[in-house]
Structure formats: structure tokens, C-alpha cells
Amino acid sequence: MAVSLPNGIVFALATAYAASLTVTAASNANEAVLTVTNTLVAGDFFEFTSGWSKANNRVYRVKSPTGTTVVAEGLDTTLTALYPAGTGAGSIRKINSWTQITQMMGCTSSGGEPQYQTYSFMEQDFDSQIPTTTSAQSLALEIADDPALAGYQALRTIAQTRSTTAMRGTLPSGSLILYNGIFAFDETPSMTKGNLMSVKAGVALQGRPVRYAS
After folding, report:
1. What are phi and psi of 59, to 5 degrees?
2. Which of 26, 40, 82, 183 has a 20 to 30 A CA-CA distance from 102?
3. Which residues form the signal peptide (predicted)?
């Protein structure tokens, strides 16, 4: 059992990517092995575009690379009902560099709530529910205003391109949260007497976050 505070978390944006590499096969395993002409090393991060919808548009860390394979750390594809055999091929895109978003004041999540289908049979006098999907998830970032900062400039550029971009949160414990989404950025700062001026950014997540304990 453990509890933690977000104090000290460092957020960074992926600001440079390598060219995409074609994944010709992906195994069903406790940690999926991707067949690819590999140039990545252990510890690299990559965006995975896959025929498996549950793995698509997510960011993973490289484990046990060889010249022809990489292991997507933590990607458990053993359930073939969710990850049909032979359909996980796609591409990977290595993240070459990260730019820290400094002066972060807050990061809140919205959405992600379970949705339900309510039903009742004619002979019943009560309703039942089964879960269906979860609602679309987004993040709201608040940043102390300073247009000269590299993270501010990176956010502005990424928001203008509307390209799907990774964001990494590194907690003081060393654990990681990896997001992948489309960014929006409002450069108009809040201005309330006695309060810090701040700007806001939003991230529409395109895949579920990936977490690593260390």
C-alpha cells in the first residue's frame, strides 16, 4: 500500500521523432515482441500504430531489442480475443527528444468515465446494466505565463500542427505516465489581481495512457 503527491512531477513533450519503422508482425505474449528492422535501444520510447485497437496510438518503452525485434514493455497481448493473432502489425515511431514543460501549475483529467447500456426483459420489473465503453478523455494543463520558455514554444508549435504528440510525466519516485494526444493551446493569459498570470493547454488523448513503475 502506498500514497503519493504529484509535487515534483516533471512533464515533457516529444518534440522530435525518427522516421517510422514498419512492424511486420506482433506476437501474442505477456510482453509483445514486434518484428521490425530495428534501430532502437533499450529504454527508448516509441509511438505504436497497430492493427490492435487496444495498442494503437499508445507510447511504450523498448525492452530487449535485437536487430530484428523489440519488446514493447508492459504490452500484454496474451488474450487473443482482444489482440487477434496476426493482426497487430503496423509501425513504430521513436521519440528522439523531449522538451520539458516548465512552470506547470496543474494538470487535471476529465472523461474516462464508464458508460453503460441499460436493459430489461419483458418479464422483469427491474433494469440491469452492462458496461460498454468509457467516455473520451482529455487533460487540462495550467502553466505560469512566460512565452520565452522552450516548453511554451513547443506547446504553441505542436498545437498549431494538430499532430498526435506524446507527453511524459515523470514522478519523483521515478514512475512514468506516457500520454499520446492532440494538443490545443490558449496563449491568452489569465489576469487576476494578486494571482499569477497563467495560460492553458488541453490534450485530447488518442489512446490510453501507459504507466511504468520505474
Report:
1. -110, 130
2. 40
3. 1-25
Locate 96 and state its grid cell: 528522439
Please give the grid coordinates belonging to residue 59. Answer: 507510447
Q: What is the pLDDT, as a whole number, of residue 1?
A: 76
Asked whether 208 and 138 are in contact (CB, 8 A), the reply is no
Residue with cell 497481448: 77
| 75 and 55 Cβ atoms separated by less than 8 Å | yes
Burial 155-179 (b: 16+ CB within 10 A, else e): bebbbeeeebbbbbbbbeeeebbbb
By C-alpha distance, which of 31, 101, 169, 78 is closest to 48? 31
Q: Which three cell numbers stand for residue 104?
A: 506547470
Spell out the alpha helix ranges (H) of the chain. Answer: 150-161
Return d(Cα 207, Cα 214) in angstroms, integer. Answer: 21
Q: Which three cell numbers stand for residue 180?
A: 499520446
> pLDDT per residue over 15-30, tens digit each?
999 999 999 999 999 9
Q: pLDDT value at position 2?
A: 82
Give the residue carrying C-alpha cell 487477434: 84
In whole angstroms, give the CA distance from residue 161 to residue 140: 19
